[in-house]
Structure formats: structure tokens, C-alpha cells
Design goal:
Largest sheet: none
Number of helices: 3
Order of helices and strands: HHH
Shape: elongated
Helix content: 55-70%
Number of domains: 1
Strand content: under 5%
Length: about 90
């Protein structure tokens, strides 16, 4: 194999690799952006002090489900024991 042909194979391989990386980033970007902007994720990773104040607090799907479960548990507790819940 000549050096020119092997160089072409390396360039072709790198182009395909970069193309696959771009497609993966394009496919996963919506989910990653929700995780990047979720303050609960930042708090879970113990890096909340670096969370920029100018970002909006978009909640990711995982933490939205956690909040819904907590809210449902509070509602169930309130319905089961309304005298225990303070006004």
C-alpha cells in the first residue's frame, strides 16, 4: 500500500468518525441540554455552587418525575390524615 492510499484511508476514517460524532450529538442534544440546565442534576452532582444564576431552571424528565411522586405522596398523606397537616 502506498503512503498516499493509507493517508486517504486515515482521512476517510476520520471523516466517518467525525460524522458519527456529529449525528450522535445532534440526536442526544435535547436531552443533554435539559440535564445541563436542571438545577436538581447539578445539586445531585454536588456542583450547585457553579450553577450560573442567569440560566433558567428547566427540570429534566427524571427530576420532574421525582417531584410528581413527592407531590402525590404528600396529597395521599393529606387525604389519609387531614388533621395532621398544618395550614
Amino acid at each position: 500500500m502506498t503512503p498516499l492510499l493509507s493517508l486517504l484511508w486515515v482521512i476517510l476514517f476520520l471523516l466517518v468518525l467525525v460524522g458519527h460524532c456529529i449525528l450522535l450529538i445532534w440526536y442526544f442534544w435535547p436531552e443533554w441540554s435539559r440535564v445541563f440546565y436542571c438545577p436538581w442534576c447539578w445539586q445531585a452532582c454536588h456542583v450547585m455552587r457553579y450553577y450560573p444564576a442567569r440560566w433558567s431552571s428547566t427540570i429534566c424528565a427524571h427530576h420532574e418525575q421525582c417531584m410528581r411522586q413527592q407531590s402525590a405522596a404528600r396529597r395521599a398523606q393529606h387525604c389519609a390524615h387531614p388533621q395532621l397537616v398544618e395550614n
